[in-house]
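Honest question from a wet-lab person: if I give you the sequences of every part of a complex, can you actually get the arrangement of the whole thing, not just the pieces? Trying it with mine:
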Amino acid sequence: MEQPHSRSYTLQLDEIQGLIASGYGDRPAASYALFEVTDVARARKWIARIVPSIQFGGYRRTPRHMPPLLADVCINLAFTYEGFEALQLDQVVLRGFSLPFQEGFSDPHRARRLGDDGPSAPENWTWGGPNNPDVHGMLAVFAGQQDANHADIELPGQVIASQICEENGLRLVKVLQAWPTNRALRKEHFGFRDGISNPRLAGLARQGAVDVIANGEVVLGYPNGYGKMPMSPELPTHLDRRGDLLLPGDDHLAPRRDFGRNGTYLVFWQLAQDVKAFWNYIFRTAEQLPWSRLEREGGERSGREAALWLAAKLMGRWPNGSPVTAYPERSGSIRHQDDNDFRFGSMGDAFGEKCPIGSHIRRTNPRDTALPVPHDPELSGDPKDPTVQQDRIDRANLHRILRRGRPYGAPLDVDFDPETMLAASEALAPDDAERGMHFLCLNANLSRQFEFVRSNWMVNPTFAGLSRDPDPLLGPQRACPFPASDFTLQGYPPRQLRNLPRVVETRGGAYFFLPSRSALQHLGRDL
Amino acid sequence: MKQQTLTLVAKVRDEAKLRAVLGEIARTRVAVGIKEQPAFFADPKLGIHFARLVHIPSERRFDAWLALESNFDSDSVDPDRARELHIDDLIRSQPEGMRSLFSCCEGFPKDASLGALGAYCKRQLVAATVTYEGHAARSLARIRLEQHVRDVVLDFVGTRPPKPPLELFGEIRDHVRVQTRKDPRLKGLDLDESPPSSPDPRVRSDKLGAGLFPWVEQGIPTAAKMLPSIPSIVKWNSEDDGYDPGDEQQAWTNVDRESFNDLAASEDHGLQNALTHVVPLKPGVDREGVLRQAHAYIDRMSHEHFADIGCLGGIPTIHFAKWLLIDGGKRLLFFSNYDHSWESYLGDFIDAAALGLNLAWSCTEKYPKTTWLFTGGAKDEEAFKAWGRKYQRPTQVFYSAYPDLSISTINNNTWIRYGLHYEPGTIDLETWFRRLT
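Yes, you can. This is the full assembly:
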């Protein structure tokens, strides 16, 4: 694999929006305003006015407590393809965006491939689907300090109300409010610590960091994992009348200017989580497994222990985040909750005997899992060979995404205890507000990264030599490629779970583009 | 029983009518395993693994074509005889359908008899420049049997308490023996006989461990034959320009966008997809000759080397593939039946098989710039994918006999079944148990 050349390590931090540089863990309150452009002239003026208030990545140049500091309220701004059309961005630029972005997240063929069918089908979405109002843009607002108080939670909504209004040529379509992050727990609604395995961009990684990907895997304008510049929407130089898109050192006479540089594609995917269905299945199955009492160490495990063990196997991490590969039988201590520095092969887990091949974390980031068939070393390479491991990691890294998600809706238990959550879910009123994940991710190539992870690694029941095993959270019982609902616990002897339920459904989504400072300035000009 | 392949390519006279006929055939479906498939190819007597019907529309200086491709089991080991018999079977199975299809084509006989239709179809047979079979020697019946063996074993083993492997393996064999007497879907399995002789796991191991030797060995005759073309290749190396995805995208018309939408609509309905790709050769003398030499090399590698491995040039997801020349050698047609999404398939091309693909396609229009016809090219990821999509055409009718089985699964099932034929203690049980997944 070609090494990205040195330029790839110098990210133009003042140009990239701050959400690329971090997930704003220090700003626990978040709201996302989805809006429509109703008056192009006013909307463009508004963009020009709001650029100085937008959080860019400069704060990552220095340690957290040294200036430039993160703003108290971090604002980021992204547009859909329809949004750029509504803003009358030049046709040449519009045609330069990637086809998935032009087609959109809710395209029916895309939905089929990604497993958005039945209750998850775009026609059933609450936003972003064919039966919903157009979404042209998203204003993401983050606020608060450490743990959010009431005022912090209200703040993003106030910012949104003041910005997304008729006066600015915008109409509010929907506000999606995140549940304030609990920094200590950082759990999603099933009760598992989230956001651990996130790759580092080469331009932001500390010396010796593990899990580093090329800048161009996320940010346009830098070499990607193939050592090539990702495709980027450009425009003829004469259309960039004010030289907005010109950066220091650029060639003033170049025939084209790069609108996409320092920008990225942003996926917004709203997922509803059925906590009751998930833990019900786990507790019931753990109890019914005929072998569970026979073979667990010591012979005896309570229902709760067996259920946690089973859930950890499905997830690939224990609820506190410790990896099942390192702690196959019992949860690791809190010291290991953010452990992301491991390979399967070198920890004796090439064949899924500790962390099952089909587990959620293994199929969303297979690391050195020898694809396509781990248990066929003749074909896929010796999993203990570090060269093979590195080659597999390099190939898996061509499909990575930067996740920036946050949960929404009130947790069923503040401590996320499974039994308490299950009991609480039994008592819920039928009209209880749902809970789930505002899954946001960033990538330079939607089809090779986000869509590949979903269709080839999650929904595909034949991932890594499996036969009928979809991702236990997001893949069961999808019509395409074929309905499947098994889960195999590799090992001696292997065990299979059957009839996995659907526990996560898509409620809405859109593909956005998160432009650079220069591109926003360009958008802010009068027509 | 042997896998055979045929391709009929007929020049189309009435494209509108053909599209209507294809639409009707695509809509008439029956359940095959767990998915509905076009009834046209579903008759069990046809023994079809994968089949397709494609309308290659007229464009620029090229005529419109109808292609019928079938990969099928045959009792005949002679490929020519097998194809003729298969055409007769197709006509017997779908007399009206075959007649409607080919009545849209030039030279269709006025005599409406089935015999005349058969003779006409046989005249439309086209020989491929390269063919590949990913699970040669396995008939449909065997693929289904071995999948069921896997299920029977996993169902049984999943409920047994842990025991020493040798003991458990013995129990599994006893169980399968008992089931063989009761379960009609295990018909034909006899654990006390030797397993089938093909595929041979030792041959596969040897080939997987052979490194570059087979490439060199098979390449020498090709290199010798290409010597006279060196001046041309030198000239192309400096003159050929590549594919600029940005410029191409700027030039997309509504017709292009409809084509992309049609492609997406035709894909991802089952585990496998059909790729139909048609691209003109670059102009100039020698292109066809050089391409034919390169293809002869790939064809030798395909049959002598990769067929035994279940993986074509590093791509382990292809069931069947073939290249053939149409329009009197002016255009190259490619058909493949592959697992998973287009994105993953093209990714495998780039990550694992760029060199072979460059050899196959570097003489065709706008192919991403290569150096000496085999380096570069497909290594330019976005250009290669965009080029691939540009010349891809929708497959109107696609049939798969096992829309839930990947090549990996089919191969793995075979190795599980082979293991059962051996006495306990004679195979590596650790490896065998790992395959139960």
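Two things worth pointing out. The CA atoms of residues 61 and 228 of chain B lie 30 Å apart. Chain B touches chain A through 61 residues (CB under 8 Å).
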